[in-house]
Amino acid sequence: MRWHESVGSTRRVAGMHSSWTATTTAALTATLGLAAVCWVLTVRQLMGVDPHLDEAHMVTATGWEPFASFVIQWVTMMAAMMLPSVAPAVVARARATGRVRAAAQFVGAYLSVWALVGVMFYALFQAFGLLAPGMSAHGSHAHGSFTTGAAVIAAGIYELTPLKRYFRRACREKAQSGYEFGLNCVGSCIGLMAMLMALGFMSIGWMLMTTALVLSQRLLPTKDNIDIPLALEIIALGVLIVIASIVFPGPA
Predict the structure, then answer these.
(1) Which end of the chain is more exposed for a tag (fewer CB within 10 A), N or C?
(2) Mean pLDDT, 10 residues at a time, over the chain (252 residues)?
């Protein structure tokens, strides 16, 4: 009798393990697959266009249509850039609940937080005429380059703050919901995203660089001998842009 009970218990454990494995595999595959699809859509949209002119049209045009176009493209870009680094959290969610649906809800909530961030950036563009790279929405190249440099400097300084370290640790820990995880990750990545928006959010090169930075910061522990020089390099880039805007102001 005990032998039969032991065999039955072993089979149940094996069945549960198999179910968990299938669930986590499905969640991981779906997350990385969605990221890949979003990368393809983003690259196809950006290929063959002038990113400067397209950014100018997207963030300075008024009305619901350009706003909706911006939000859709923004969410697609965020899914492409962020989901690879979010995959471990999605897998953990699927393993904890045993349901792929819970993982999908986690991803949806996470992306909704980034959608709100996109709306915030859009509002800033509309309100203050901030536009990068090297140009303001009101047509002043010098003003736009100076603003771009200042934004990059601010992003580098933020990388050195205790607030950045707090959010970076928080988004590496287990989250109760996609909303909580998203807020922590926004707090960790907001400096890098502001830098991306300033340098050119429709540039594939800057997108790839930002994605690599976000992925490394999400998966690797904090190390001062890496993080501090990186932040200083970002600040130096911003200083160079500001100096260039003063020395070479361009047409008004």
Answers:
(1) N
(2) 48 48 87 94 76 50 72 92 92 86 92 93 72 41 70 94 92 82 92 87 85 88 85 93 82 50
Q: Is residue 94 part of a domain?
A: yes
Cα(98)–Cα(9) distance, integer angstroms: 19
Contacts of 46 (CB under 8 A, 6+ apart): 202, 203, 204
The answer to whether the CB of 90 falls within 8 A of the CB of 27 is: yes
Q: Tell me which amino acid residue 75 is.
A: V
| Token pair 């792929």: residue | 100
Q: Residue 7 domain-assigned?
A: no
What would the pLDDT profile of 215-235 be if each residue is shown by its tens digit? 988 888 888 888 899 999 999
Domain presence at residue 5 = no
Quickly list H helices, the chain: 2-46, 51-60, 64-97, 100-128, 141-158, 162-170, 178-200, 204-219, 224-247
For residue range 177-213, list pLDDT tens digits in order.
Answer: 899 999 999 999 999 998 888 887 778 888 999 999 9
Do the domain assignments include residue 95? yes
pTM metric for this prediction? 0.78
Angle subtended at Cα 186 by Cα 180 and Cα 192, rounded to the nearest 5 degrees: 160
- Full domain range(s) for residue 47: 13-247
- Burial tier of 17 (Cβ tally within 10 Å: 0-12, 13-18, 19+): exposed
| Omega of the bond leading into 249 within 30 degrees of 0 (cis) | no
Number of domains the chain contains: 1
